[in-house]
Amino acid sequence: MCRWAAYRGEPLYLEELVSSPAHSLIEQSHCATRAKTATNGDGFGVAWYGERPEPGLYRDILPAWSDCNLRSIARQVRSPLFLAHVRAATGGGTRRDNCHPFVHGVWSFMHNGQIADFEHLRRPLETMLDNDLYNSRTGSTDSELLFLLALQFGLERDPLGAMAETIAFVERLAAHLERRVLVRFTAAFSDGRQLYAVRYATDFAAPTLYAAPMGETGGYCLVSEPLNDEVEAWVEIPDGSAVVLGENGVDVRIFSPAGRPAGGMEAKLALVR
To answer: What is its EC number (predicted)?
Structure first.
């Protein structure tokens, strides 16, 4: 399983999450404590928002602990909103275009989790994308495909609704094709204004998610596992929850994809056997 960290608030140096804390994201890349795999050495990435609407993006296939450029960039770049990720591949090769975060226009997305039997669902899921979104797919992971499907289902209009619709559709497709129905999904995504996160799993065993305020910045960070030993500062976000970090602070909501309409896509299920 991967590890990730995200922040929204007053501008903060990336190193405050990526490299400086005792259990920073770089430390978690080779010594994660709340994941099935302690090592997350299949690449890394950072997406950050600055003066332009689109996020900056830096990704590589090196383990995060061995890339000196990452430490230098994290020390110099300040941002009011950024996403950082270290990868433990569960599918897709170790390639730069399979490293998180993924970016499309103003949107950025990163994920920790999996789709069961993805190799049997990949082709019919890709057929749901319009030409522009299909052509923007550069990698081979389930994570990137989930992101593009959410864009297809209206991420720009209703971020949490589109993400719920995406997961519900994957579950219904798996059932329709008589494959294992299982989505484990702990993800963060942003349009540069709001930061969203979701923790959900079909089997109620979603990868972990924690939240904590960041000192005097007025901001909050969301992480796969705490960045330090200050246990009381970190709140675990329950399975089946969505988090919205915006100008009004933190909003935690119930997240339940089951039973949501599929935006007219349900009829196409009969075409993908």
So the answer is: 3.5.1.118
